[in-house]
Amino acid sequence: SWKECDVRGWSSDCDDRQIFSSGGAFGWFPWVDFENGTFGIIGQEGSVLTSPVGRSYDLAHEIRPYVPELLNR
Question: Which of 57, 68, 71, 73 has the fewest CB atoms within 10 Å of its CB?
Fold first, then answer.
C-alpha cells in the first residue's frame, strides 16, 4: 500500500496525511482513511489493457469525501 499525497509531489503536508491505498492493475482500489476513520474498496471488471485501475482511482477519489457523512447518518 501507499501513503497518499498531493499528485504534484511530496511536501511537508504529506507527513500529516493518513490515507493509504493500493490500486491493482485489474481494477481493484482499496483504501484506509485514518483521518476520517473510513475504508472502502472499488472493484471493476476489466482487462489490464484497458487500465481499469485508473477508473477505479478516479471513482474512489470522487466518492471518498462523502463516505464519513454517509456513515454518520
Answer: 73
